[in-house]
Amino acid sequence: MPVEKSASGGKLKALFLGLFIAGAIMLIRYTPVKDFITAEALGAFLRSAGYWAPLVYIVTYAVGVCLFIPGTLLTGLGAAIFGPYWGFLWVWIGAMIGSAGAFVIGRTLGREFAASLIGDRLKKYDEAIQRNGFATVLYLRLVYFPFTPMNFGMGLTRVRFADYLAGTGLGIIVGTFIFTFFIGTIKDVWASGNWGELISFKVFFSIALFVFSFFIPRIIKRVKGEQG
């Protein structure tokens, strides 16, 4: 009886997880809420927050990650409003909180059911992820594995929360900095109206970093292949 209750409880939680994800996607894409999830609307909302804008932005980013709002929109918005450096910091904090929240949701609602589906064949992989959680998460972040699906998906595995958080924190630093630095730099030039600044080391450096970011997954995979 306890086993049956546990199995049925896991299925019920998994159902709630599925409903949560489906509901979040429906809310953002097919309801009037989608009209507020634009760069213009969110930008105006954040600017109206004044002194509290960074905190409001961090909360918005964290909630947005859990509701499947595109991270590129939120990241670009942060860089455009706060600049390349503060933008990077607020984006990174918001992404960390959001990824932690999504992981906890996935772990709480989906892990039990996922574990019940794992047979002997998959068990060794599940255990391997637990043993090498930090390295696995770090690698997947560096090769730009889809951010939000990975947040929820990792919650279904045996990876330790501390390993997940550390791997995520370190793994998203490079990509986050490159993207926010690029957007923030272009925004600063646009806002100043001094188009001569487009021909500067800072702008060319930001463009070079942005282009380089597309090659990071290939570099990581090649290094991993050579080590293997």
Automatic annotation (TrEMBL):
One of its GO terms (cellular component) is plasma membrane. It holds the Pfam family VTT_dom. The chain crosses the membrane at residues 12-31, 51-73, 85-105, 133-152, 164-186, 198-216. It is found in: Cell membrane. Its main location: membrane. Residues 69-183 form the VTT domain. Keywords: Cell membrane, Membrane, Transmembrane, Transmembrane helix. It is a multi-pass membrane protein. Belongs to the TVP38/TMEM64 family. PANTHER family: GOLGI APPARATUS MEMBRANE PROTEIN TVP38-RELATED. This is TVP38/TMEM64 family membrane protein.
